[in-house]
Amino acid sequence: MIEEKFIEDLKKNDPDAFKKLYEEYAPKIYGVLKNYVNHDEIEDALQEVFIRIIKGINGFKGLSKLSTWIYRIAVNVGKNYSRKYQRSKETSVDFEDETDQNPNIQAISNTNVKNEVLEELDYQMILNIMEKLDKEERLLIKLRDIDGMSYNEIAEIMEIPLGTVKSKLHYARKKLRQFIEEANLV
After folding, report:
1. H helices then E strands: how many in the chain?
2. How distant is the alpha carbon of residue 172 from its chain centre?
3. What's the pTM?
4. Percent of the chain, pLDDT > 90?
5. Ranges in the chain annotated CATH 1.10.10.10
């Protein structure tokens, strides 16, 4: 009932509903797009997803959950960007680190610096290890293990059979576990 009211408000072009939509879904969409889009263009892709949502909301029939429909749009936009990269065969490498971009980074207090640094290193190592997975494997792990989506929702978003989702997710997790073990993080 709450989702139906929210969709109705979106269809009425309620600014508060669009604000809520952006606040709730922008981080999730961003996470999906990271699997497909170069960092330099991710904001453009995010904007494109929201434009498609706004333009398409009146045609949304409610045959799936709103979130499933939105994720499907995000995946399609991401795939379009990915195809664009493959066609252009351009690669950009960013050799800057965060300290190059912001020389005014201030020192953190010494209280738990060691623990914070170790946790950050582990987190960054896991992110780096995730990059070893292919796009589809990263997306499956993100949708299921990070966003908590059901297998059925993932199957609908990715337009693949339910059994394929389960199988591919099993192998993606196995591969990720192997990479983590090889990096001695476990």
Report:
1. 9, 0
2. 16
3. 0.64
4. 42
5. 110-186
Please give the Cα distance from 115 to 100 (Å, whole number): 24
User: For position 100, what pLDDT does the model report?
Assistant: 44
User: For position 24, what pLDDT does the model report?
Assistant: 92
- The second-level CATH assignment, the architecture, of 1-91 is Orthogonal Bundle (1.10)
Dist CA 32 CA 78 (whole Å): 8
Q: Tell me what the pLDDT averaged over the chain comes to.
A: 80
Helix-helix angle 66-88:42-56, to 10 degrees? 140
Is CATH 3.30.450.40 the right assignment for the domain spanning 110-186?
no
Q: For CATH 1.10.1740.10, list the domain ranges present in the chain.
A: 1-91
Q: What is the mean pLDDT of residues 30-40?
A: 88
Side-chain-side CA neighbours of residue 179 (13 Å): 16
CB atoms within 10 A of CB 178: 12
Distance CA 60, CA 69 (A): 8
Out of 18-22, 53-57, 96-100, which region has the weakest mean confidence (pLDDT)? 96-100
Distance CA(160)–CA(169), nearest Å, equals 12
For the segment 7-31, what is each residue's pLDDT rounded down to a tens digit? 999 999 889 999 999 999 999 999 8
Buried b (16+ CB within 10 A) or exposed e, 95-134: eeeeeeeeeeeeeeeeeeeeeeeeeeeeeeeeeebbeebe
